[in-house]
Design a protein that fits this description.
The complex is a heterodimer of chains A (108) and B (114). Chain A has 108 residues and is mainly β. Chain A is 0% helix and 58% strand. Classes of the chains: A mainly beta (108), B mainly beta (114). At the A-B interface, strand 4, strand 5 and strand 10 of A face strand 5 and strand 10 of B.
């Protein structure tokens, strides 16, 4: 089976940089994904890492180390609208298993 | 494009009643799945389908049935509702036959079983 660990809550101020870590245990690993979910809304896809290294998309970057079973999401130039829950998810051939989520609170 | 459409958005059921949650996508995605989301539990996979005519169980399939007669539709049936099935249900689809290309989620169905 799969299991993931991520912090339950992270706080930061506007304009800062924050990193949300994710460690996982899995069999048949295909990749690590990140999703954002605002309160009351549906999750939206942010990024996918199949290979080791850093992927950058605008203010968001995602990193994967397969040998360490570890990844992180990096959010730069934080804005109030970034306050949301962030989920890492580990993919096998046919399933995607989500972590329990990290609530990010951005304050002015 | 509408993306992934879920109906209804809200539903209250009595214990023992049955119902079907509808999910339709217009992106010609092969892969579709159903998740439930409970506070503090993240999203848990109920059932998934890698293409029309093919379904399989996820992490929490008990009490739910699915079928996939067309590429577009993937309904979730609750056979005999229980209070433990009170949850928010999300349908999601992904291009190809894998969930790793990025899900598009529906807006969710908020179900209460009393």
């Amino acid at each position: 089976g799969q299991s993931l660990e991520q912090p339950s809550e992270v706080t930061a101020v506007e304009g800062a940089i924050v990193q949300i870590n994710c460690t996982y245990q899995t069999s048949g690993f295909y990749g690590l994904s990140w999703y954002q979910q605002h309160d009351g809304g549906a999750p939206t896809f942010l990024s996918y890492n199949a290979l080791d290294g850093l992927e950058e998309t605008g203010r968001f970057s995602s990193f994967l180390s397969r040998s360490d079973s570890y990844g992180y999401l990096l959010l730069q130039e934080l804005q109030m609208k970034d306050s949301a829950s962030y989920f890492c998810a580990v993919g096998s051939r046919s399933t995607l298993t989500f972590g329990k989520g990290t609530m990010l609170l951005v304050s002015p | 494009n509408a993306g992934v459409t879920q109906t209804p958005k809200f539903q209250v059921l009595k214990t023992g009643q049955s119902m079907t949650l509808q999910c339709a996508q217009d992106m010609n995605h092969e892969y579709m799945s159903w998740y439930r989301q409970d506070p503090g539990m993240g999203l848990r996979l109920i059932h998934y389908s890698v293409g029309a005519g093919i379904t399989d169980q996820g992490e929490v399939p008990n009490g739910y049935n699915v079928s996939r007669s067309t590429t577009e539709d993937f309904p979730l049936r609750l056979l005999s509702a229980a209070p433990s099935q009170t949850s928010v249900y999300f349908c999601a689809s992904s291009q190809g036959n894998s969930p790793n290309y990025g899900y598009t989620f529906g807006s969710g169905t908020r179900l209460t079983v009393v």
